[in-house]
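Action item from last meeting closed. Structure (356 res):
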């Protein structure tokens, strides 16, 4: 795998990208497929091993395998060809779709699409386990009033996960996507979201938890192209040891996209002073009747609060875990389905137990 055709880290959009880690992940030695299971939910269940569908373990239900047009993005265009597709007709509703990505060696590339007609409702849960380079491209198109909830868990103990996401949201439609990076892999979440219709809504965010020499990042751009749109980006980053977490979130408001309400909240927590959190919120506004705000802070755990908890008999490691869990809770709490949210919370707790 050569990364020579990828952008240089000298380019602003790729300044924090771990291209070296990506190349190293593609060269990892093969491993046995790890044990992994689905959440206890009805609906379609698809298992992809190194990007190839395991038919014996999969139940497609409303999901089909189709040829998907590639993205023009440097990473997204690698995930071209046959992939999974969820298409729902107007006013249709589907049980949750679970996608389990298992990496055992080298690089795997897989495209996907979610196409919802007017007023359709769907929910997708994706989980990444194993080791290697898992490169994925997802195209989302939401019709008027459609609603999609996505929850993505990055749990590989090693390797690299790169996600390219492209979405177009029509009038009164809603896209909610929450990520949790709680594995040991490197990662890059690269998204471009376009609110194309009046009153469209996007809620996009999550938590990236890093330790050791790990690097995780997100680079998200939300384009408001119609009036009365609302967007929220809530990201939390926790970095321990000598790791690095980077959050870049941009909101663009077109001249005619009046009454836009866009909010960004980027917060980083350093568990060790040798760790690094990079935050970069951006607003580019051409309309004159909007409400947009952004906040970015990086800090350490409050020593006075830790002292208070310890004075009540809570061990230091437990006190740190409680405060760190509270720090990431508002990002994970945005998951509407209780069972899925509890699984994410358990993953975050497992990371905290190992890190602290």
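Sequence:
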């Amino acid at each position: 795998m050569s990364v020579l055709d990828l952008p240089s880290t000298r380019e602003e959009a790729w300044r924090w990208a771990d291209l070296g880690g990506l190349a190293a992940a593609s060269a990892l030695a093969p491993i046995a497929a790890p044990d992994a299971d689905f959440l206890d939910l009805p609906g379609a269940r698809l298992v992809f091993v190194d990007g190839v569908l395991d038919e014996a373990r999969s139940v497609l239900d409303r999901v089909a395998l189709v040829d998907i047009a590639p993205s023009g993005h440097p990473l997204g265009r690698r995930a071209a060809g046959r992939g999974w597709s969820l298409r729902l007709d107007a006013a249709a509703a589907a049980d949750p779709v679970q996608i389990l990505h298992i990496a055992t060696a080298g690089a795997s590339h897989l495209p996907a699409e979610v196409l919802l007609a007017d007023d359709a409702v769907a929910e997708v849960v994706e989980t990444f386990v194993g080791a290697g380079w898992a490169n994925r491209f997802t195209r989302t198109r939401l019709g008027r009033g459609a609603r999609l909830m996505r929850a993505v868990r990055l749990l590989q103990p090693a390797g690299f996960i790169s996600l390219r996401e492209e979405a177009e949201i029509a009038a009164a439609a809603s896209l909610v996507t929450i990520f949790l990076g709680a594995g040991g892999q490197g990662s890059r979440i690269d998204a471009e979201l376009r609110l194309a219709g009046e009153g469209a809504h996007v809620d996009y965010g999550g938590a990236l938890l890093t330790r050791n020499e790990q690097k995780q990042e997100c680079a998200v751009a939300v384009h408001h192209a119609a009036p009365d749109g609302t967007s929220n980006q809530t990201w939390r980053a926790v970095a321990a040891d000598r790791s690095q977490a980077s959050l870049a979130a941009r909101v663009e408001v077109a001249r005619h996209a009046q009454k836009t309400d866009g909010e960004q909240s980027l917060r980083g927590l350093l568990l060790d002073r040798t760790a690094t959190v990079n935050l970069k919120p951006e607003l580019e506004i051409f309309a004159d009747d909007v409400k947009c705000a952004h906040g970015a802070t990086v800090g350490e755990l409050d020593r006075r609060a830790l002292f208070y908890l310890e004075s009540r008999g809570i061990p230091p490691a437990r006190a740190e875990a409680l405060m760190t869990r509270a720090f990431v809770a508002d990002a994970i709490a945005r998951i509407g389905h209780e069972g899925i949210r509890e699984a994410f919370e358990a993953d975050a707790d497992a990371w905290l137990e190992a890190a602290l």
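Note appended to the action item: The first strand starts at residue 45 and ends at 49.
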